């Protein structure tokens, strides 16, 4: 195992909190790559060369005894029965010796931590690549199967695809995304997968149970003060089905997000909304212009939010005004205003259908 300079520096800094002697971390080429004494970094260390040759600690009594070395003791550091580095402690050998066991042990523990962390990162990157292959194009399935085999992943074990889309909100996005990813990972089964893909969290689940997914959603919402729209696919019939179920689920989670439906949704939760997904862009623009005319963005934003809430509450004035935190008279005034400006009355079924379709198209822009 090769120890990087960054890892070596972290080790030296950790060990410096324990003893007040200079500590040197020396690589397998006998070069000091980290040291409490920054001036020695990059220097050749003749004493460590002897450590690698004898596989034993080397005591240096005088500064001039070995090229580039100072009085002290240098110890071999092993990982999986292989010497991967030398740790040197500068000072009188009698004084230094009492720290030797703990210093070597701590160094080896830290190296193990770095190794397992690196392995986890490599695994996570491979899992991300696997999911990207599965959801990008059907023709990449053969490659995905090969990658899955190398990772000891059985694609036939997965039963559902889930996609989590975060509420648009100003925050330290990059850092929060990593924390949320870790939170999801800790709550999944051993063989279940999650990756951050283009800002959304894509999950491959081996269970059809909604309770656990609801628990994950509730935890993230509470922990990070952010709402989440969750798309939950139909049950997978085979590994070939992952691509198609991902496509369907990505559509419905986008719809849910734009409609501010921060809940778990399935294909069965949408009807008219699905039709609007594949309409020609020029037709959408024409339709929006016909229904809403030249209404300003601010007013249109208010109207569409109101109409979505009105639909969600089945046209109830009381329930809609409660959700929007406005007086019911204010709501009725705004509904009348829509009729005055557009000619369509939201309280009439046919007119509301026209307005609601325009709202769906507007929210997809």
Distance linking N and C termini: 51 Å
Q: What is the approximate shape?
A: elongated
CATH superfamily of the largest domain: Nucleotide cyclase, GGDEF domain
Q: Given the structure, what is the number of helices? A: 14
CATH architecture of the largest domain: 2-Layer Sandwich
Strand neighbour order, sheet with most strands: 2-1-5-4-3
Your description of this structure?
It is a single chain. This protein is α+β, with helices and mostly antiparallel strands and 365 residues long. The chain folds into 3 domains: 5-111, PAS domain (Beta-Lactamase); 156-270, Nucleotide cyclase, GGDEF domain (Alpha-Beta Plaits), CATH 3.30.70.1230; 276-363, PucR C-terminal helix-turn-helix domain (Arc Repressor Mutant, subunit A), CATH 1.10.10. Helices cover 52% and strands 15% of the residues. It contains 14 helices and 10 strands. The strands form 2 sheets. The protein has a 5-stranded antiparallel sheet with strand order 2-1-5-4-3, sandwiched between helices. A 5-stranded mixed sheet has the order 7-8-6-9-10, sandwiched between helices. Strand 4 and strand 5 form a beta hairpin. Helix 11 crosses helix 12 (317-324), helix 11 (297-312) crosses helix 14 (349-363) and helix 12 (317-324) crosses helix 13. The longest helix is centred in the N-terminal third of the chain and has 37 residues, at 100-136. The relative contact order is 0.07.
């Amino acid at each position: 195992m090769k120890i990087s300079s960054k890892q070596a520096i972290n080790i030296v800094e950790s060990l410096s909190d324990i003893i007040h002697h200079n500590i040197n971390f020396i690589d397998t080429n006998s070069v000091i790559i980290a040291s409490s004494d920054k001036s020695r970094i990059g220097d050749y260390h003749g004493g460590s060369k002897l450590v690698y040759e004898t596989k034993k600690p080397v005591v240096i009594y005088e500064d001039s005894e070995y090229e580039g070395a100072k009085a002290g003791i240098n110890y071999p550091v092993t990982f999986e029965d292989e010497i991967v580095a030398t740790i040197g402690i500068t000072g009188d050998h009698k004084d230094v010796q009492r720290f030797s066991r703990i210093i070597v042990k701590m160094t080896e523990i830290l190296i193990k931590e770095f190794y397992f962390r690196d392995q986890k990162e490599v695994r996570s990157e491979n899992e991300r690549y696997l999911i990207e292959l599965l959801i990008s194009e059907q023709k990449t399935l053969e490659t995905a199967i090969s990658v899955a085999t190398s990772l000891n992943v059985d694609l036939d074990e997965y039963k559902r695809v889930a996609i989590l889309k975060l509420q648009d909100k100003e925050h330290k996005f990059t850092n929060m995304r990593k924390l949320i990813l870790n939170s999801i990972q800790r709550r999944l089964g051993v063989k279940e997968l999650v990756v951050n893909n283009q800002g959304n969290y894509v999950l491959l689940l081996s269970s059809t149970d909604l309770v656990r997914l609801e628990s994950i959603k509730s935890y993230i919402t509470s922990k990070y003060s952010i709402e989440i729209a969750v798309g939950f696919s139909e049950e997978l019939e085979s590994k070939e089905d992952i691509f198609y179920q991902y496509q369907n689920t990505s559509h419905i989670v986008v719809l849910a997000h734009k409609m501010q439906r921060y809940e778990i949704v399935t294909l069965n939760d949408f009807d008219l909304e699905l039709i609007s997904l594949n309409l020609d862009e020029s037709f959408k623009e024409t339709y929006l212009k016909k229904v809403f005319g030249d209404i300003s963005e601010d007013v249109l934003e208010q109207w569409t939010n109101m109409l979505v809430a009105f639909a969600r509450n089945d046209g109830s004035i009381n329930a809609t005004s409660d959700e929007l935190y406005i007086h019911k008279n204010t709501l009725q005034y705004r509904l009348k205003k829509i009729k005055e400006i557009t000619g369509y009355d939201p309280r009439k079924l046919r007119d509301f259908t026209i307005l609601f379709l325009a709202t769906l198209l507007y929210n997809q822009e």
